[in-house]
Amino acid sequence: MVNFWKKLVKDKHKGKLTRDGIRLHDPADFDGMHKAGALAAQILDEVADLVHPGQTTGALDRFIEDKVNAAGAKSATIGYKGYQHASCISVNHVVCHGIPSDKTLKDGDILNIDVTVIVDGWYGDTSRMFVAGKLSRKAERLIQVTHDSLMKGIEAVRPGNTFGDIGHAIQTYVEGHRMSVVRDFCGHGLGRVFHAPPNVLHYGRPGTGPVLDEGMFFTIEPMVNLGRPETKVLADDWTAVTRDKSLSAQFEHSIGVTADGADIFTLSPAGRFHPTWTTG
Ligand code: MF3
Ligand code: CO
Ligand code: CO
Q1: Which of 21, 23, 52, 149 is the most buried (most CB within 10 A)?
Q2: What is residue 51's DSSP assignment?
Q3: pLDDT tens readout for residues 191-246
Q4: Whose CA is nearest to atom 2 of ligand 1?
């Protein structure tokens, strides 16, 4: 989502909010998030086998939309600020918010597929990387570092730590591998709303930002570039690309803060979060 406070919709549900406007959810709310998160993750598990050279991103999106409907769930993205698809599919140097289309995938293309579903009012938001055909060594390295940076961020999640600790863990890991963290987009609170406070930055300084507390629900979704971090949005008003046209990757989990760590709502039921492809 866009790294800009005033774009956040206020969460009008009753209950506890912190001074920073971050909702503290009840134990029962974790169940709702697990159902929504598991469906989003399962749909990504299923779409994996359709990713191959010659496939169109539009066909992948239609498959996803059908799966959301078949589950009796709703797509959170169809109708969101005028967006018309059940997924965002971001190929190669597209950083995020790629629009599914009739364009076909070529051998060696890497793509992020991002799905958000609503189940019983709860939002499950997750994305991961796929490859069409043969993965290059440099793309493999980018994807591995991006995935591992998300996990470093999740390891920093516990009550008493801050959002700056999460961003710092991701940034130092990525930059230690001579890659860059995108600053123009960030993670977000979610729950019974799609995008809520806080902005979850994927860079930062330890001990800064809001303090984490049990019951907070949010996404961590680092975007990592092989080249420079700068992005620009194309004339369609959605597609964000790297300015230097370098390859970009992203992984996203929706999580909840527990008494001693993080509960990941969007784990892959098939154990396919990473890697999502078969080799050989
Ligand atoms: N799922 C994206 C996120 O991680 C948001 C996509 S909004 C859309 O926050 F309208 F572009 F689909
Ligand atoms: Co998100
Ligand atoms: Co998403």
Answers
A1: 149
A2: -
A3: 999 999 999 999 999 999 999 999 999 999 999 999 999 999 999 999 999 999 99
A4: 1
**Cβ–Cβ < 8 Å for 22, 207:** no
Question: How far are the Cα atoms of 57, 95, 160, 184 from residue 243, in angstroms, in the given order?
Answer: 22, 10, 37, 12
Would you give the end-to-end CA distance of the chain in angstroms?
35
Phi, psi angles (nearest 5°) of residue 196 = -130, 165
Say what the pTM is. 0.96
Instruction: Give Rg (Cα) of the chain.
Output: 17
Ligand 1 midpoint to CA 21 (Å): 21
Residue 221 CA, closest ligand 1 atom number: 4
Tens of pLDDT, residues 12-28:
787 899 999 999 999 99
Pairing of strands 231-233, 217-220: unpaired
Torsions phi, psi of 203, nearest 5?
Answer: -150, 165
Angle, helices 27-47 vs 57-70, to 10°: value is: 140
Q: Which residues of 133-159 are buried (b: 16+ CB within 10 A; e: fewer)?
A: eebeeebebbbebbbbbbbbbbebbbe
138 C-alpha to center of ligand 1: Å? 27
- 140 Cβ partners below 8 Å, 6+ apart? none
The residues, ordered by sequence, that sit 6+ positions from 31 with a Cβ below 8 Å of its Cβ are none
Q: Does ligand 1 lie within 6 Å of residue 221's CB atom?
A: yes
**Which residue has the least CA distance to atom 5 on ligand 1?**
1
